[in-house]
Design goal:
The complex is a heterotrimer of chains A (217), B (214) and C (275). By secondary structure, chain A is an all-alpha fold. Chain A is built from nine helices and no strands. With 214 residues, chain B is an all-alpha fold. Classes of the chains: A mainly alpha (217), B mainly alpha (214), C alpha/beta (275). Chain C: Belongs to the bacterial solute-binding protein 3 family.
């Protein structure tokens, strides 16, 4: 018990919170970009433009089938070779965005596929262009149905930020490791804090997804 | 790049072996644990449902790394000796079991309730009806997703690199550090992962199309 | 909070730009690091944050502290003048070489031994610290020296450190477990994942000071001269670094910093480590 009281000192808690903030920051920015890029890729794969869609599809498959850890290494250590010097936060965001965009692209593609074909035909026969119909009719319906899988992918993203400890992103898990690394008695309190904090953030996301899902459908 | 592969072939293959071993053990174990928790989740008793739901929700919302590190760091201090491979495989099992529980639950609930009622009214016990009537139908829904879980497991087993679990990523990190050839090493490691995951993922897509038609 | 939100905004903007601008520049690693340092008035240093006495994260301030951090700051002032800024980036034994070769950092001052293999890949300054490899064990451990690391024992090391190669030679029968940094490695030792932890004595003394239930045993069995590592071909920066080291040694700054960090470490001789 005494260990818990000592471990949750103001100093340690504020250090943990600084880590949590980086986790949130990296997650929010990565979700934002991967949602946009994932949608573009998902549509690109769905529309079946000769060669182009096949190539996009292959690249998506490559990325989806690699461990995120590997993509993190590549981004941090390989990008400077083409003249981009990145500090660890942007490097982590880029790696997360690349990986999660590919994961989201698959969800979005199958979401679009689930919208009845008649919808597109009806929109086209009412004089809309293909892209107008896609943006105004198909995608909004697809997103409505995709909320649960999309949000569960976002939750994965928040959890996956912990893997960036391997390139020393100063996020929640790394900060907890530093604290218990300096005092072994704090090990259990730190793991308890980690489980609780990740749970709160992700459970809030999942509750929000249920609420939105119910409102829309 | 070829040098990295040929000079370290044995090490890399042994790493891939541990990666696959850990993934297979975790798949089987998490299928068992996941099914148990799926059954808890659909129990008639409320408190049993609460336990099942709590487990699944809790595990699904915390990172694999946190679960794995807890087994690597805490368990040996207070409970029992546990090496990195074991801790990592247990972490993978627990993490994956929550996802499998959700799939199995969805599979069972997709079987029309009338099937269970019909079986019960014909004199079968709850367990008998579950085993003979509901499970065989649920399996059809669950099996395709197991392939995807296995692909996830192969990728996620790179978590063993954090706990000296001798897997492919761990060996890759060490080779990168000793040869100083980071880029090529991770390229080779990436190709080795893809050799396993890509064919599986295409096979899964083919199966899913086929299965849904059947 | 407002400041943090603003930072988030800046990040968004910067990343959006990065996605628009395609990377067509010359590799960061190849351009003259000294010229860039003078132009931007800063040197980007890779330092340890997991190693007590050398470079350790202070959770209270969020700053990294230690002998090597102080050295990095002093060397920066010496090379760039009073306004020169030392930007500190966390590295581990595992990430320091790729960080250098990719050009993420200009120089690494992080308990890095000058070895022939590394000299093929990197430039090194003159040595600034003479360490030697040793063992850290629990107080009641049966292991008293490298000779006790027989078959059936296991020893914890850190990926990317040359101490894992050395221990394989000195104790070929023991099983070596490599973790990603010293904090993880020490935690693994406390979790009984190995019978001993091996690396350079300076780092081990730091661990023993932090948790006195663990002691350094058996003396040193290698010589580990630490140098500042820079990318291969960065001759200007290497020369500037050597000159600055000379000056710091002559004007007494070096000895003052050494005493500041190591004079009250039990079992450690400040005279012995000076090259």
């Amino acid at each position: 018990m005494q260990n818990f009281i000592n471990a949750y000192s103001a100093v340690n808690l504020s250090y943990l919170m600084r880590g949590l903030w980086v986790t949130v920051e990296v997650s929010v920015v990565s979700i934002f970009f991967s949602f946009i890029i994932g949608t573009l890729l998902g549509v690109a794969r769905y529309v079946k433009i000769k060669y182009f869609s096949a190539i996009v599809g292959f690249i998506i498959d490559l990325i989806r089938n690699l461990p995120l850890l590997l993509i993190l290494f590549f981004t941090y250590f390989a990008l400077p070779n083409i003249g981009i010097r990145l500090s660890v936060i942007p490097a982590s965001i880029i790696a997360m965005t690349v990986f999660e965009s590919a994961m989201l692209a698959e969800i979005i593609r199958s979401g679009i596929g689930a919208v009845p074909i008649g919808q597109m035909e009806a929109a086209r026969s009412n004089g809309m262009t293909y892209s107008q119909a896609m943006i105004q009719i198909i995608l909004p319906q697809a997103f409505k149905k995709m909320i649960p899988p999309l949000v569960s992918q976002f939750i994965s993203l928040v959890k996956d930020t912990s893997l960036a400890t391997i390139i020393l992103l100063p996020e929640l898990t790394q900060h907890a490791q530093i604290i218990y690394g300096q005092n072994v008695n704090y090990t259990i309190p730190m793991f308890a804090a980690l489980a609780l904090l990740y749970f709160i953030v992700n459970y809030a996301l999942s509750v929000a997804s249920h609420v939105i899902d119910r409102r829309l459908n | 790049m070829i040098n990295i592969l040929t000079n370290n072939f044995g090490t890399l293959i042994s790493g891939l072996g541990y990666t696959l071993l850990s993934s297979i053990i975790a798949l089987v174990a998490s299928l068992i644990i996941g099914t148990v928790f799926a059954l808890l989740e659909i129990s008639h008793k409320k408190w049993v449902r609460v336990i099942g739901k709590a487990y699944v929700e809790f595990i699904r919302n915390i990172p694999l790394l946190v679960i794995t590190m807890a087994f690597y760091v805490i368990v040996p201090q207070f409970v029992m000796q546990m090496d990195g491979f074991t801790a990592g495989t247990i972490g993978l099992t627990i993490y994956t079991s929550a996802f499998i529980a959700e799939t199995v639950r969805a599979g069972i609930q997709a079987v029309p309730a009338g099937q269970m009622e019909g079986a019960r009214s014909n004199g079968l016990s709850y367990t008998q009806a579950m085993v003979h009537i509901v499970f065989p139908q649920a399996i059809k829904i669950v099996v395709p997703s197991l392939g995807n879980q296995f692909i996830n497991l192969v990728k996620n087993s790179s978590i063993l690199a954090f706990v000296a679990g001798f897997d492919l990523m761990y060996q890759g990190k060490i080779i990168a550090a000793t040869t100083f050839n980071t880029f090529d090493t991770y390229l080779v490691v990436g190709v080795l992962y893809l050799v396993v995951t890509m064919p599986m993922s295409y096979a899964m897509r083919y199966l899913e199309k086929h299965w849904s038609r059947a | 909070m407002a400041k943090r939100i603003r930072r988030l905004g800046v990040l968004f903007a910067a990343l959006a730009m990065l996605l628009v601008v395609s990377g067509c520049g010359k590799s960061v690693a190849d351009s003259d690091a000294l010229a860039r340092a003078k132009r931007t008035d800063k040197i980007v240093w890779g330092v340890k944050a997991d190693t007590r006495l050398f470079g350790l994260m202070n959770t209270k301030t969020g700053q990294i502290q230690g002998f090597e951090v102080d050295m990095a700051k002093a060397l920066t002032k010496q090379i760039l003048g009073k306004n020169g800024k030392a930007e500190l980036t966390q590295i581990t034994s595992d990430t320091r070489v790729p960080m250098l070769k990719a050009g993420n950092v200009d120089a690494v001052i992080g308990t890095m031994t000058i070895t022939p293999e590394r000299l093929k890949q990197l430039n090194f300054s003159k040595s600034y610290f003479s360490a030697g490899q040793s063992l850290l064990v629990a107080k009641d451990s049966k292991i008293k020296s490298v000779k006790d690391l027989k078959k059936g024992t296991s020893v914890i090391g850190v990926q990317g450190s040359n101490s894992v190669d050395n221990i394989k030679k000195a104790a070929p029968d023991t099983r070596v477990l490599q973790l990603s940094d010293y904090s993880q490695a020490f935690t693994a030792l406390k979790s009984h994942q190995g019978d001993a932890l091996t690396t350079d004595n300076g780092i081990l003394y730091g661990m023993s000071q932090q948790d006195p239930r663990y002691v350094v045993v058996g003396g040193t069995f290698t010589k580990e001269p630490y140098g500042i590592a820079m990318n291969k071909g960065q001759t200007n920066l290497t020369n500037a670094m050597n000159q600055a080291l000379d000056t710091l040694q002559k004007n007494g700054t070096y000895e003052r910093l050494l005493k500041k960090w190591f004079s009250d470490v039990p079992g450690f001789d400040v005279q012995e480590v000076q090259p």
